[in-house]
Amino acid sequence: MQPNLITGIGLITAAGVGCEENYGNFTARNPGICTVTRFELPTAKVKTNFAGLIKALPNESLPDELLPILNEDDLAQDYVKAAVYVTAESIKDARLADRPASDPRRTGLIVASSLGNFLNVSELVKDYFMKELYKITSLIHGMNSYLPSRLGSMFGVAGPCYFVSSSCTSALNATLQADTLIKSGVVDRVLVCAVDVCLETGTFHLWNKIRVLSHRNDSPHTACRPYCKTRDGIVVSEAAGCFVIEKASDASGHGHAMIKGIGMANGASDFLKPSPELLEAAIREALATSQTPSEKIDFIAGSASGSPHCDHFESEAICRVFGERATKIPVFPYKSFLGSTFGTQAISEGALAIRSMNKNLVPAPFNIFEPDERVKANVYYNSSDYAGYEINNMLFINYGFAGNHMAMVLGKCGK
């Protein structure tokens, strides 16, 4: 069976709105992580005052033909607008035209998110308890089932439409389900929309309280330091992204990447730390299901977040799988640029990683100031050593809180 293809990509992060702006700022190394001004900070209670926040989306940023369909409540929420934007961008990029509408039951849509529409629920609670206001529409918008249903009706999707949440692996979990739905013959294509626009005073304060955030308030753009000995915590960031995933026979010769195989292993003794053994199992399963020998992997998109307690475990798993080649395959963590984008990571980071693969560009290490002796994988490379290097197969690693460990092998189309 031929691998399914990623044929369309849409993207919004703190670094930009749309794929091209994100790609440009990644090349220019402008991450968009900065001091929080969008919401009030309880400064006496928080040690961290920065994050990666998406910019407010004006209504005119959305496609003209969709504006009349969106109601007042939709337009009041960047969670909804971001999802609409990236879905529309990915459909245009995939050159889908009217295919979903012409055969709606052969198209599915999955929304992936770590926290869902938390901002709406937060406002609903505050309005109810502090202002004695109550709107039934607010409750409906807060339901995780709302967005996939709404997007499905807007974009003419009548196949499976549902919501997936598994912490930071939500988007990769949804990608696995989309890949499975297509291979099983249920649908011909799936839109996988990941969105986590979820930071406000309460959530940000809670992230501070669990003591996992970086405290580098004087230098937000260098605060996320995966694999670096001086790393002191993660940087939380918002994002939205969408993949159009299609059968190769339906892709009209257009594709960004082949989904060759996905692996997963769940369970961990520590809620906040990955298990090297389970991460190794997920990587081995991805290689096995993709029928890609480890020696054919040319590049690794690492999942390391800058946590002083986690990143070396990923290196340990990579070394177990790849042996001596672990010191030769370049490993780049896209969180060093984006921060930790909650449940969108497989798409927000994946979009940049796919770009790197298709351009045969090994990005220069970002925010690594001092090597950690516990990290043995090839993360401290010189990008100039990879001039003329070809990336045909890439391993994408993704893990998150609560014991979710996943990995995906992506291949260059036509290779």
Features of the shown structure:
415 residues; alpha/beta; Peroxisomal Thiolase, Chain A, domain 1; 2 domains; eleven-stranded mixed β-sheet; two-stranded antiparallel ribbon; 32% helix
- Name the CATH homologous superfamily of the largest domain: Thiolase/Chalcone synthase
* Cα-atom radius of gyration: 20 Å
Strand content: 15-25%
Domain count: 2
Order of helices and strands: EEHEEHHHEHHHEHEHEEHEHEHHEE
Write down the CATH topology of the largest domain.
Answer: Peroxisomal Thiolase, Chain A, domain 1
Instruction: Characterize the biggest β-sheet.
Output: 11 strands, mixed
What is the β-strand count? Answer: 13
At CATH level 2, the architecture of the largest domain is 3-Layer(aba) Sandwich
Query: Mean pLDDT across all residues, rounded?
Result: 92
The geometry reads as: globular
The helix content is 25-40%
Structural class: alpha/beta
Distance between the termini: 15 Å
- Classified by CATH, the class of the largest domain is Alpha Beta
- Please mark out the parts with pLDDT under 50 across 5 or more consecutive residues, or reply none: none
Secondary structure layout plus pairing:
Elements: E1 4-13, E2 16-17, H1 19-28, E3 34-35, E4 50-51, H2 72-75, H3 78-93, H4 99-102, E5 107-112, H5 118-130, H6 136-142, H7 146-154, E6 161-164, H8 170-183, E7 189-196, H9 201-209, E8 239-246, E9 257-266, H10 276-290, E10 299-302, H11 311-322, E11 331-333, H12 335-338, H13 345-359, E12 393-400, E13 404-411
Parallel strand pairs: 5-6, 5-7, 10-11, 10-12
Antiparallel strand pairs: 1-2, 1-8, 1-9, 3-4, 7-8, 9-13, 12-13
Helix pairs in contact: 5-6, 10-11
